[in-house]
Amino acid sequence: MRNEPTVLWNNWTRLLSALLLASSALLVSAPRKGNSATSTAQPRKGVVVFSVSAESGTGSMDAVVIVDGKQLRKPYNDELADKRESFAKQYFAPGKVYRLIFGGGEAGSVTVNKWSEGCNNIHAEVTPATTARLGGKVMALATNSESLGKRASARRAPTDAERAAVMSLALNIYRQRMGYYRTPPNLRAPLPPAGWLKVTNLTATDLDGDGKYEFIGSFTQADKNKFERDLFLIAHQQGTAMRADLAKFQAYQPPPETFLSSIDFIDQLDLDGDGTGEVFATQGGFDGYALLIFKRVRGVWRQVFDQIGDAC
Question: Is the pLDDT of residue 27 over 50?
Answer without folding.
Answer: no
